[in-house]
Amino acid sequence: MLRLLFILLFLSEFLNVIAQIPSCDGSRYKNCVFGHVDSLMNIQYGKNYTMNHILENLTMDIYKPKADTVKKRPAIVFMHGGGFVSGKKQDIKNICVAFALRGYVTATIEYRLIDITVIDSTTVIEGLIDAVSDAKAAVRFFVEDAATNNLFKVDTNFIFISGISAGGVIASHVAYLDSTDDMPSYLANLINENGGFAGNSSTNLSYSTPIRGVLNYSGALLRKEFMSPGEPALFSVHDEGDTIVPCSHGASHAYPCIVYCDGSCAMQQEATLKGIYNDMYLNPTNGHCAYFSTYQQADTTIQKSADFLWTLICSLTVAVNEQDQFQGKMLVFPNPAIETIHIAFPAQPKGDEHIQIINLLGILLREVEAKQSTQIDISNLPNGYYFIHLQDHSMKTHIFIKQ
């Protein structure tokens, strides 16, 4: 009877997962499956005042696959680089097109730049907070559209945020900086002056900013501790010897003033520690965004990024885990796994819960005490599907694949 129950449970979970997958066919979202894209230029998504008290209309360029018939698609909102003082949305048009050819709705946005002449570390951080407010308004633009006119057919369960250099810094803070974080008073004051954590760059504040994952290209966080268990997945790309935005903790050489940050290497370590699903492509050079310097390098970078997003969108097992991640319950990664499975919780379990690994016949193969972060050796298990069962009052069960 127990084996029959587990087989039925597996079928139920499997069918539930299939129902969650939006238009995955094994190639879409990973490879270029469209020949052309449609574009809409200078679409206004908000407005706000610059540091120099100039009211600026905030616009984006939107790209989508031409002649696409899918009714719900993932979206990526991109921010350009330029140290918060320069750059324009057209700078990353080619990246937007590359992902649109894979089936995404993509947008590259203009955000407010620092437009005063005297720049110190506080000014740089104020520019960051302004830009975060703008980026959140851009995300809400798509969430509102999905709930009303549905012109862009975006699946709001799969909105990703991305940026290069300063844009990567913006994207990372949109995803990981929130009211639960411990932060210095000057940063809290800047956020409050800019409309709070939702920002004040648009009026559609009744809509949320659901971020499924981050594509962080040479970005950083002011503090890696802003990352918390259960927050969006992270894929980072960074040059190992970057001095403009250091990959580990360090001072940026982009400004005459000192601005310390935690780059992609530090963020990846923190994500792993906190049980956030993540991966990283570390480019062994001393440049800044050198992985975009040639067509071949750019193609490799974009393909690795697309492979990561495809896993979040289309992988059967990760779809289940990511759903629970955003509900703040239990995260299982990597999935599929080869030698070790990592299980993480938002908080330390009470001490009476146990994690069990069970095969499809209902046979118990492993049992360990549940901790906030647990690793289980699965190297000697045969390849195939397994259950990870949390034995507590919720009796939560996940599916994972051993490869």
Layout of helices and strands:
Elements: H1 2-20, E1 37-49, E2 55-65, E3 73-79, H2 93-100, E4 105-109, H3 121-147, E5 154-164, H4 166-176, H5 185-193, E6 213-217, E7 220-221, E8 233-239, E9 249-252, E10 259-263, H6 264-274, E11 278-283, H7 295-314, H8 316-326, E12 331-333, E13 340-344, E14 354-358, E15 364-369, E16 373-377, E17 384-391, E18 397-402
Parallel strand pairs: 3-4, 3-5, 5-6, 6-8, 8-11
Antiparallel strand pairs: 1-2, 2-4, 7-10, 9-10, 12-13, 13-16, 14-15, 14-17, 17-18
Helix pairs in contact: 1-8, 3-4, 3-5, 7-8
Description:
The protein is of the alpha/beta class. It folds into 2 domains: 2-13 and 324-402, Immunoglobulin-like, CATH 2.60.40.3080; 31-293, Alpha/Beta hydrolase fold, catalytic domain (Rossmann fold, 3-Layer(aba) Sandwich), CATH 3.40.50. Helix content is 29%, strand content 28%. The chain has 8 helices and 18 strands. It has helices at residues 2-20, 93-100, 121-147, 166-176, 185-193, 264-274, 295-314, 316-326, and strands at residues 37-49, 55-65, 73-79, 105-109, 154-164, 213-217, 220-221, 233-239, 249-252, 259-263, 278-283, 331-333, 340-344, 354-358, 364-369, 373-377, 384-391, 397-402. The chain has an 8-stranded mixed β-sheet with strand order 1-2-4-3-5-6-8-11, sandwiched between helices. The chain has a 4-stranded antiparallel β-sheet with strand order 15-14-17-18. It has a 3-stranded antiparallel β-sheet with strand order 7-10-9. A hairpin with a 6-residue loop joins strand 12 and strand 13 (340-344). Helix 3 packs across helix 5 (185-193). The longest helix is centred in the N-terminal third of the chain and has 27 residues, at 121-147.
